[in-house]
Design a protein that fits this description.
The protein is globular, with a radius of gyration of 19 Å. The termini are far apart. It has three domains: 60 residues, Nucleic acid-binding proteins (OB fold (Dihydrolipoamide Acetyltransferase, E2P), Beta Barrel); 66 residues, DNA polymerase, domain 1, CATH 1.10.150.20; 49 residues, Helicase, Ruva Protein, domain 3 (Orthogonal Bundle). It is of the alpha+beta class and 220 residues long. 48% of the residues lie in helices and 18% in strands. A five-stranded mixed beta barrel has the order 1-2-3-5-4.
Length: 220
């Protein structure tokens, strides 16, 4: 499995780039948003990748962050959403926008992506809404871009300490970080976190994110 590629941009197509990695060229399909963020021909670039395997197809899909790669995987888990449709949604909204739309049940935002009809958009929201808070919570540790290196250093595994239950302050900090990553202002996000944390003692991160998003949603 090819999980990451670092090389020189040899060619830019309409929906893919050719990356030269030490003389070997890899065609990597990307969203419009990712394409716009890539450097010009001749410069170095790095992408996390997912290999799509079909009976008549082997295709590499590229992502600027592991967070976006995870959302592509989640979108493809929805019936009727393939690799191209998932890329279209991410290209239109980005990982953060997709997460926000699904968490808030905003099917119209999903439908704004090219090639996504109302039935598919509604299905995406219904099938992924329960998974969105957990995915959002992972965003803080998965949002960094891949480094332009060519060697993977293997570290000697270290004993894992016994996990401890997160403190209330740590949970609140994680929720606040997730909301800020989604584009909410610090003061509004902090107020929402304080309220939902106080009203729901013992709730986990995913639940607190979902409740905070509901509180921050525009009132109709």
């Amino acid at each position: 499995m090819i999980g990451k590629i670092s090389g020189r941009v040899d060619y830019r197509g309409s929906d893919h780039v050719l990356l030269d990695v030490r003389g070997v060229g890899y065609i990597v399909h990307v969203s419009d948003r990712t394409m716009a963020s890539l450097p010009p021909v001749g410069e170095a670039a790095a992408l996390y990748t997912e290999l799509i395997v079909r009976e008549d197809l082997l295709q590499l899909i590229g992502f600027p962050t592991l967070y976006e790669k995870e959302w592509h995987r989640l979108l493809m888990s929805v019936q009727g959403v393939g690799a191209k449709a998932a890329l279209s949604i991410l290209g239109a909204l980005g990982a953060e926008g997709t997460a926000r739309a699904i968490a808030l049940g905003d099917a119209r935002a999903i439908q704004a992506a090219q090639g996504i009809g109302p039935k598919i958009a509604q299905r995406v929201v219904l099938e992924l809404k329960s998974k969105a808070p957990a995915a959002i919570a992972m965003g803080g540790v998965m949002e960094s871009a891949p480094e332009l290196d060519s060697v993977v250093e293997v570290e000697t595994p270290k004993p894992r300490p016994t996990p401890k239950a997160p403190s209330t302050a740590a949970l609140s900090a994680d929720v606040l970080s997730a909301l800020i990553n989604l584009g909410y202002g610090h003061s509004d996000a902090a107020e929402a976190v304080a309220v939902v944390s106080g009203e729901n003692p013992g709730a986990d991160t995913g639940t607190l994110i979902r409740l905070a998003l509901k509180r921050l949603a525009p009132k109709v």
